[in-house]
Amino acid sequence: MNDFTNKKEWNLTKIVLPQHTDHAGVMWHGSYLNFLEEGRIDALNKVGITYSKLSNKGYEIPVISAQIKYKISFKHGEKILLKSKFKLVNKIRLNCKTLFLKVNGEIGAEALIELVLVRKKNDSIQLVREVSPEIKKIFLLLEEGP
Description:
By secondary structure, the protein is an alpha+beta fold.
């Protein structure tokens, strides 16, 4: 899952609510994607830029690949600690590795999300191949960790 060694982790605690579960009270697989996005947005906020500000500047950071390995299910009412690390790859791709941890520290799931920076211009979306210093600084702050 790429080399995320020596990267500091961004933490976000969530509680599994009824809307996150299936009829058996087990966390639904789609909820993991929502939590992953919330973790990324939270980390962006912590480095000083909201996703809406980024979007207003004409940028988006869409997911181009998502891999989730489910190990132990989470149930309604459980606390989950998301520990995420970022890594800038090939100057234009940002990878995010996240562990979903149970209260006892067991790994319930792990995910690798690959993102790219795109620019919205009129009605088109273009991959940003040369990241501006402002955006690169944001990516490097995410990579550095809290």
